[in-house]
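Possible regression after last week's pipeline update?

I re-ran a chain I had predicted before the update to compare outputs. Posting the input and the new output here so someone can diff against the archived version. Not blocking, just want to make sure nothing changed silently.
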Amino acid sequence: MIIVSDTTPLSELAKVGKIELLRDIFGTVIIPEEVYIEVTTGNHPAVNLVKSADWIEIRAVSDLEKLSNLRIVTNLGAGECAAMILAEELEAHQLLMDDLDARRVALSRNLKIIGTIGILLVAKQQGLISSIKDILDALIAEGKHISSRLYEEALAAAHEL
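New output (post-update):
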């Protein structure tokens, strides 16, 4: 299974000590160079985790013109655009992405996407975690915006209401 990730799922799961769920669910996760740069810059919790993760592969986007055009047309960030182009080039089974505007573009390009909350739901279904509520609460405490509607829907989907 080919999985490509944008920055946010990596960084958000790292903030709450759950980045290994990506490895446990997907095995290998591929990120474009642009995402690697974003996630390993600064003093974010993901910096060392991503640098040392042998299950994360860094790949270059082949078609730089397509990447440049997507950035111009969508006004999205380098990591988001690179993740979409790489997912297309590799014919990825899933693209891990949270940003709503980027998700809309990815869906318009017929990419299959899953976000951080979806990853938590899969982890619970697979028995890797017993509850998503504490993790969602920790994400919110770390500054992740999760609407009350999405929060309630996620808990309902996880049978935690």
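Follow-up from reviewer: compared with the archived run. The mean pLDDT is 95. Marking as no regression found.
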